[in-house]
Design brief:
2 copies of one chain form a homodimer.
Chain A: E1 27-32, H1 37-48, E2 58-63, H2 69-81, E3 87-93, H3 96-99, E4 105-108, H4 120-141, E5 147-150, H5 155-164, E6 174-176, H6 179-193, E7 200-201, E8 204-206, E9 214-216, E10 221-224, E11 227-230, H7 231-235, H8 238-242, H9 244-260, H10 265-281, E12 289-294, E13 307-315, E14 318-321, H11 329-353
Helix pairs in contact in A: 1-10, 4-5, 4-11, 5-11, 6-9
Chain lengths: 355, 334
């Protein structure tokens, strides 16, 4: 069942010019795990135009496993009831050949969650199977220009597997989400300095979206009363910045789960929107964002065949690692530790891939 | 951005609807892209740890307009100096609970919250009641806040309004925004009356009367009405949870329209105080009408022709509201 809409008219209540002569072609956007919590917080923002632009119509493709199709129908009903002008069509499905067809963007939220008694190895094995299949589906059905954001954990390794399973899609088109950690880091510094979160720029999340991630503010700037101040000078508490600040950001996900009894869907959805929107429209001059990207050719001494979170600029839907940042001993050790974890994850995952 | 922050309260703040709603508010979708916000989150004491998690997430969203987030279980903190209050929290129906018991429990809540508005909020506060039974809860709150104008109180029928638009739109093969001036009359319950006699559908560049665009009078007077009336239950049956996403969107639409007004020639549906209405609806109710909004004031759209079919349905939903009110008021004085 799909919802088909078409129109020809002048400005609507959202100030959107919907005259069909000027209307952009719709883009096809896939969200997997579409019946789940994170998707529920995410889909509305996508359909509203917050990610791909206020004049960009969207065909939203929702993929989940067969047992979730009735729930997915409820989600489709709600999207209809939201009466959103940009939403051209909503396609719920459990089939990869429908889900991945002609995609412009794919947000892979769905993954195998950790069950009680499950070893890390088992989790990795189950997810390799999923992301191998989805990578192959991207290869077979999606546009070669597709941009892929992997959210489902373990995000970095899942992303690498998907990319390896889609050899004719550029590795640069694959990324994983560390923007949530990035936003958390910004917010912690902002609260410490008593400024709004957007007054804090250029924090960096290095490495794995896991507890080994390294939130680094050596190059961050805080706008205090109109002046740009280095984060270490603005905060004036080096031990906090090298200690509790880091562990707070690393463990924030667990803290939210402990309080809510559910994981952080709202803030994850927001980070996903930030990541995709910046990929689509670019980053501002002088600012960089954190993204898990292919480490090939990096100048920071990180092993190459990984998806590793770096500071990046984005322009024309392409990212570039921000090079040349000085890395002190403290940072070096942390960057290496998270790389080592990723190397181990990769090697375990690859052994499953070749089976 | 130097505007004074607005103080906005959301009750039931640890719950499902609030979880879908708070982000939209904090982002600027309701009160404006340059309007900083102090967000106050009220819930019952057992929910304070969960509320703590919600606060963490709002911080982690790194939203520039969100000046402050205040989680609380105390009315004197929650209702202080409010500019806007969205009362989502209410007593849910439990198994075995009679309608009368549900009404009694909610009268207690909304009497207390109305009194808190009276005591602590600005007199200019705009109050949107979402928690069900929304119309009657709204009336009780208004009656418990006698020095706040009754016009400042409203209840949510915008979700039903959006659902009605969307059903007509899908039938005509146009986006929902091409469907204007549907009306939801009456109670936010299964007696609501979705009325498209004055609705216009923009098709191929011109505005058509809805009945002409749809070309299926039986559907518009039959299954269309029941689909909209029962949509909530259909979503629950599918999701196993109620419609938080679309409810949150409707809440944002309702508050945004109060704050910034409705476009020329368009009206929206709101549950508002019925006294001095020109449609023969019983007075002293909160009843959903078609309204225009300008300068944060709503006005019922007068002079729409009402045929027998509509009259019957408008009266039926009014009768239900009169009964609810009379039961509720007995509890108020108890």
């Amino acid at each position: 069942m799909s919802l088909l809409l078409c129109w020809k008219n002048a400005q609507n209540e959202y100030g959107v010019c919907v005259c069909c002569f000027l209307q952009a072609d719709p883009i096809r956007v896939l969200v997997t795990g579409a019946a789940g919590q994170i998707a529920y917080s995410l889909l509305y923002s996508i359909a509203k135009g917050d990610v791909f632009g206020k004049d960009q119509p969207i065909i939203l493709v929702l993929l989940d496993i067969s047992p979730m199709l009735p729930v997915l129908d409820g989600v489709v009903m709600e999207l209809q009831d939201c009466a959103l002008p940009l939403l051209r069509e909503v396609i719920p499905t459990d089939k990869v050949e429908v889900g991945f067809k002609d995609l412009d963007a794919a947000i892979l939220v769905g993954s195998m969650p950790r069950k009680e008694g499950m070893e890390r190895k088992d989790l990795l094995k189950a997810n390799v199977a999923i992301f191998k299949t989805q990578g192959a589906a991207l290869e077979k059905y999606a546009k070669k220009t597709v941009r892929v954001l992997v959210v489902g954990n373990p995000a970095n390794t899942n992303c690498l597997i998907a990319s390896k399973s889609a050899p004719s899609i550029p590795k640069e088109n694959f990324s994983c989400l560390t923007r949530l950690d990035h936003n958390r880091a910004r917010s912690q510094v902002a609260m410490r300095c008593g400024v709004p979160a957007d007054a804090v720029k250029n924090v960096i999340i290095w490495g794995n979206h896991s507890s080994t991630q390294y939130p680094d503010v050596h190059h961050a700037m805080v706008n205090v009363h109109g002046k740009e101040v280095e984060a270490y000078d603005a905060v004036k508490d080096d031990s906090w910045l090298k200690g509790d600040f880091i562990s707070t950001v690393q463990l924030r996900g667990a803290a939210v789960i402990k309080a809510r009894k559910l994981s952080s869907a709202m803030s994850a959805a927001k980070a996903i929107c930030d990541h995709m929107r910046d990929w689509w429209f670019g980053t501002l001059d002088g600012e960089f964002m954190s993204m898990g990207v292919y480490a090939g050719g990096n100048s920071y001494g990180i092993p190459e065949d990984l998806i590793y979170s770096f500071p990046v600029h984005i322009k024309n839907k392409s990212w570039n690692i921000h090079d040349g940042l000085p890395v002190n001993d403290f940072s070096r050790a942390k960057m290496d530790a998270t790389a080592a974890e990723l190397v181990e994850e990769r090697d375990t995952a690859l052994s499953f891939l070749s089976q």
